[in-house]
Amino acid sequence: MWDTWQKPGYTKNNVTRFLWDVCGYRTQRELAAAEPNLTGSFLAEKWMSVLMKTEECMLNNGFVYVDEPDGFIGGSCKFPQYQNLPSCQSLKKTREQTQ
Questions:
Q1: What is the value of pTM for the model shown?
Q2: Residue 50 and residue 93: Cα distance in Å, rounded?
Q3: 20, 63, 71, 82: which could form a disulfide with 91 (CB 3.0–4.6 Å)?
């Protein structure tokens, strides 16, 4: 996930720290360990909530989402379950502005 966020002056390590320490990103595995009663669709729903909050935080702090080679062709934004995430919406808006 940290490879898809960029901000001038930030290294990959800086981005990673920002994701975890400032924006509260957690992997699905970390959520499952922290909340063992969450399973299946409940865990997936909780993780999507974490992703939404993390991505809003990143965008609000001046980071840009980059999904290679093109998010709606080869990246995660091509999958319907991710298309409403702030990152995919941002990428979609940028893509529409350049066409």
A1: 0.76
A2: 22
A3: 71
